[in-house]
Amino acid sequence: MLRLDPMTPLEYERYLAYAVEDYAQAHFRNGDCDPVGLLWLALMEREGRPFIYIYDIEIVEARRSQGLGSALLGLAEDYARGIGVSRVSLNVMGWNTRARSLYERHGFGVTGIGMSKRLDVKPS
User: Fold this and answer.
1) Which of 63, 57, 49 lies closest to 76 in space, CA to CA?
2) CATH topology assigned to domain 3-105
3) Whole-angstrom distance between the N-terminal and C-terminal Cα of the chain?
4) 41-93 pLDDT, tens per residue?
5) Whole-angstrom distance, CA of residue 77 vs CA of residue 59
6) 29 CB contacts (<8 Å, ≥6 apart)?
7) How far apart, in whole angstroms, are the C-alpha atoms of residue 38 and residue 4?
8) Any idea where the domains of the chain sit in the sequence?
9) Is the pLDDT of residue 25 over 50?
């Protein structure tokens, strides 16, 4: 059985060591309480319409390819429905084909395009 649990202060401190953001919402745990990943989401609003935004979703390396990413997305969707929100959004890097495939299998579609430009820089 899978469930979402709030991070403990120590877990949050460890998370902040590599994510310089405000607050991670939940760890993703299996039935025996071992953390298997995390989900950081927030209720947002755009043009008067609420939506859930997934800031970060991770599965522990050793537990990948076991359906846990799908289960975690399902929990995020259940949470959204439970508070009456009908849209979930996230960003994914174009090079992350594994994550993109997961999100597409769950009905997520492209809503934007990221752009970058390489600059010529002279050594100083």
Assistant:
1) 57
2) Aminopeptidase (3.40.630)
3) 56
4) 889 999 999 999 999 888 888 888 889 899 889 999 999 999 999 999 999 99
5) 17
6) 2, 3, 4, 5, 35, 36
7) 8
8) 3-105
9) no
Residue 103's SS3 state is helix
Calpha distance 123→114 (Å, rounded): 28
**DSSP codes of every residue in 2-58:** -EEEPPPHHHHHHHHTT--SS---EEEE-TT--EEEEEEEEEEEETTEEEEEEEEEE
What is the distance between the alpha carbons of residues 35 and 37, in angstroms, rounded to a whole number? 6
Q: In whole angstroms, give the CA distance from residue 53 to residue 89.
A: 5
The 3-state secondary structure of 62-91 reads HHCCCCHHHHHHHHHHHHHHHCCCCCEEEC
| Helix H or strand E segment including 92 | none
Tokens of 69: 């990413």
- CB under 8 A, 24+ apart: contacts of 21-29: 21/55, 21/56, 24/56, 28/2, 28/4, 28/59, 28/68, 28/71, 28/72, 28/75, 29/2, 29/3, 29/4, 29/5
Mean per-residue pLDDT for 18-22?
47
